[in-house]
Amino acid sequence: MSKVLSILKIPVVVILTFLIQIVISNNFELFGITPNLILVTVVIISMWNNITVSVITACIIGIAADLIFHFDLGQSFISYLVIALCISYMSKKYRKESKAAIVYITIMATCIFTGFQFVYYIIDSSLVINIFAMIKQIIIEVLLNIALSYILYKIFERSMEDKELESIYG
Which residues, 6 or more positions from 42, have their beta carbon under 8 angstroms from its beta carbon? Predict the structure, then answer.
């Protein structure tokens, strides 16, 4: 029963994530770069759920992000799907409780997402991309996403602990 409830909470988390991302992208940026709360949500969900839930969630989030932010299908969809698959594949190679794991996985996910963005822009616009601008964006976005990941991970971890305590004592 608790597994069903946790899966039913995912749509609520996704909707809140999109609403907060829209507010953040309009009001907060560091050197022209905003943190990607949607990416961090895909990372956290993929770390704590099985491959089926991770992939379905990543696909839904990717399609919604493409429709809301990019006006064409594929850019976010493919990126989030690859990230969810990578994290699910690596799930037996790290401990969910490890702070280092969340940092490394967030760095990997941010690099994959940003790399896909730059490849997409190169293919779509046939422009030459400044490699230094790309590196700057990756570094700043990684730092912002690590901070967000850590905060959200702690919130998610605490809610999982409360659920475990409730199942033991309640």
Answer: 57, 58, 61, 80, 83, 84, 109
According to DSSP, the residues that pair with 140 across neighbouring strands are none
Axis crossing angle, helix 51-65 with helix 2-27, rounded to the nearest 10: 30
Of all residues in the chain, the percent with pLDDT exceeding 90 is 3
Residue 37 has pLDDT above 80, yes or no: yes
102, two tokens: 């969340």
Domain residue limits at 17: 2-169
Residue 30: beta bridge partners?
Answer: 33
pTM metric for this prediction: 0.79
2 near 167, Cβ under 8 Å?
A: yes
